[in-house]
TrEMBL record:
Residue span, Tyrosine specific protein phosphatases domain: 105-173
Pfam families according to UniProt: Y_phosphatase
Database matches in InterPro entries: Oocyte-zygote_transition_reg (IPR052782), Prot-tyrosine_phosphatase-like (IPR029021), PTP_cat (IPR000242), Tyr_Pase_AS (IPR016130), Tyr_Pase_cat (IPR003595), Tyr_Pase_dom (IPR000387)
MF-aspect GO terms: protein tyrosine phosphatase activity
Top-level taxon of origin: Eukaryota
Protein name according to UniProt: Protein-tyrosine phosphatase
Domain Tyrosine-protein phosphatase: 1-182
Length: 186
């Protein structure tokens, strides 16, 4: 996993996202799930090839224990710094689902506050949790546009580009529950 960190930051610099959503932790169940690809402590700086990444601030919203946000400054010598918010989901188990969809809705709402920008989303493999949150965002966009929604069609389209997305029945049900929470909260 560590061998891909430089590539990750090269891609990040190229695409210049405003947000990264990390749906796993570095270790889960005592097993490595993701490389530590960013500085973990406030004011810490790390260099990955030509990309320099600084952790400016880490916050855990008081009313929300599902995720914390890390403010990062990312730069390459001679280029303007880009500011990225890294949303670290803290309690979404691999092959499982969170108890509520409200955490996902909060993260997606914050990401949506930066329209017309690239968002990087990842979990440990890139299909289960990642597929579920991407499907949710697409479904929410369809609902916000006032169009008819067919969740299965959305998942089929995602799977045509990323096989195995929304990997388990529990994730499929969780997606529906989250959408219902969204509709009921309106």
């Amino acid at each position: 996993m560590d061998t891909t960190i430089n590539d990750f930051w090269r891609m990040t610099w190229q695409e210049k996202p405003r947000s990264i959503i990390m749906l796993c932790t570095v270790t889960e169940g005592g097993k490595p799930k993701c490389a530590q690809y960013f500085p973990g402590k406030t004011n810490e700086t790390k260099q990955f090839s030509k990309v320099v990444v600084q952790n400016v601030r880490t916050t855990s919203p008081a009313s929300e224990t599902v995720f914390e946000s890390v403010q990062l400054n990312v730069c390459v010598t001679g280029e303007p710094t880009i500011k990225i918010t890294l949303f670290k989901w803290l309690d979404w188990p691999d092959f499982g689902v969170p108890a509520s969809g409200m955490g996902m809705l909060r993260i997606l709402r914050q990401v949506r506050d930066c329209p017309n920008t690239t968002v990087i989303v990842h979990c440990s493999v890139g299909i289960s949790r990642t597929g579920t949150i991407v499907a949710c965002e697409i479904c929410l966009k369809i609902l916000l546009e006032g169009k008819n929604l067919n969740v299965l069609d959305v998942i089929k389209e995602i799977r045509s580009q990323r096989a195995g997305a929304v990997q388990t029945e529990a994730q499929y049900v969780y997606l529906h529950k989250t959408l219902l929470e969204y509709i009921n909260a309106k």
